[in-house]
């Protein structure tokens, strides 16, 4: 009385392999989003440098445009970082959720305004038609909720740069004393 044992081996496919075959390629999407973050970050840093140049040259209107671009890019960077976090957390989720994340990434890519993420800071500083200035401001006001606060922020930057450039200003520079510890107490 023997037991019949089948010698057929059934091929087993791991869960991860099945999910990768059927779902979107989230690794590729993640890599594209990271490269987008790098490009937006470089534009953002150039906007910051351009605002400082405009403060030195006392060109407030151009500084407002650059600040509007910078605020728009800050918002989009936050959205992209949140999406990357979703992708990182979705490794063990069903394909339906992965498809939703992939579609969200496509929508985010479509909503990026090419005029506002364009690296045209040098052109803005050197001079441009007033019509294009107005177009950048209008587009940034659509996306920025705090667009009314931008001129006041630029005013504060101009005031702080003016106070630092005065000949007898104390500025905001701190002195370093070797006799003090990091807590500020004397040894």
Order of helices and strands: HHHHHHHH
Structural class designation: mainly alpha
The total number of structural domains is 1
Question: Percent of residues in helical segments?
Answer: 55-70%
Work out the helix count: 8
* Shape assignment: elongated
Write out key terms for the chains shown.
elongated, 68% helix, mainly alpha
Give a structural overview.
With 187 residues, this protein is mainly α. The chain has one domain. Helix content is 68%, strand content 0%. The protein is built from eight helices and no strands. Residues 9-15 and 17-21 have low confidence and may be disordered. Residues 172-187 have a biased composition (Basic residues). Residues 162-187 are annotated as: Disordered.
């Amino acid at each position: 009385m023997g037991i019949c044992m089948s010698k057929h081996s059934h091929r087993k496919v791991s869960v991860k392999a099945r999910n990768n075959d059927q779902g979107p390629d989230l690794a590729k999407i993640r890599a594209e989003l990271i490269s987008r973050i790098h490009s937006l970050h470089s534009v953002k840093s150039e906007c910051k440098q351009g605002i400082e140049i405009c403060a030195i040259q006392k060109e407030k209107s151009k500084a407002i445009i650059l600040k509007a671009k910078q605020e728009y890019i800050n918002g989009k960077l936050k959205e992209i970082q949140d999406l990357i976090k979703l992708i990182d957390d979705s490794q063990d989720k069903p394909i339906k959720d992965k498809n939703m994340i992939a579609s969200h990434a496509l929508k985010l890519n479509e909503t990026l305004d090419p005029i506002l993420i364009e690296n045209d800071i040098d052109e803005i500083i050197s001079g441009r038609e007033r019509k294009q200035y107005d177009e950048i401001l209008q587009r940034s006001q659509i996306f920025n909720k705090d667009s009314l606060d931008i001129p006041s922020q630029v005013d504060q930057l101009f005031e702080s740069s003016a106070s630092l450039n005065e000949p007898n200003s104390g500025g905001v520079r701190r002195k370093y004393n070797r006799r003090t510890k990091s807590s500020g107490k004397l040894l």
